[in-house]
Amino acid sequence: MKQSLTPYEGTWILKYQRGGFAGKTIVPNKEIKLIIANKKISRYEDEQLLSEEDFKTIKGSTIQSDELKDIIVNNGISKQSIEQKGDTLIISDQCYDCFTYLYIKEK
Fold first, then answer.
1. I want to staple 94 with a disulfide (CB 3.0 to 4.6 A). Which of 31, 42, 79, 106 is the partner?
2. Residues 54-85, buried b or exposed e (16+ Cβ, 10 A)?
């Protein structure tokens, strides 16, 4: 059995994003998918590849917690924290009035 390089490996489907100045919850009207595998993170919209970047994390401070959390490190996106709780993946932009994205693991 292939050992996972990161606890975040898998295929994740966006259920909603929440935040912004108004604190709105936005449910996507298209399928938004993340695939994290082989030290890469790929973003798809309705099965069309939008981006693919290297993926790794470091421990760092976040605006959501006093504890050190995993931070996604790459050049393509702004600072984001990442956390997995069971079959749920939570990615949070690290700025006030930004968004938190909730993904569910694809079975």
1. 79
2. ebebeeeebeeeeeebbbbeeeeeeebbbbbe
**Is the distance from CB of 13 to CB of 91 less than 8 angstroms?**
no
The per-residue pLDDT for 1 is 36
Coil/strand/helix, residue 47: coil
Instruction: Work out the angle at residue 24's Cα, subtended by the Cα atoms of residues 22 and 29, and round it to the nearest 5 degrees.
Output: 140
Answer whether 54's CB lies under 8 Å from 39's CB: yes
Report the half-sphere exposure of 87 (CA within 13 A, side-chain side).
6
Q: Assign 66 a pLDDT band (cuts: 50, 70, 90).
A: confident
Nearest to 68 by CA among 83, 56, 78: 83
Residues 83-90: contacts with CB under 8 Å, at least 24 apart:
84/7, 84/8, 89/8, 89/12, 89/34
pTM: 0.87
pLDDT of residue 7: 84
Sign of the torsion formed by the C-alpha atoms of 28, 88, 99 and 7: negative
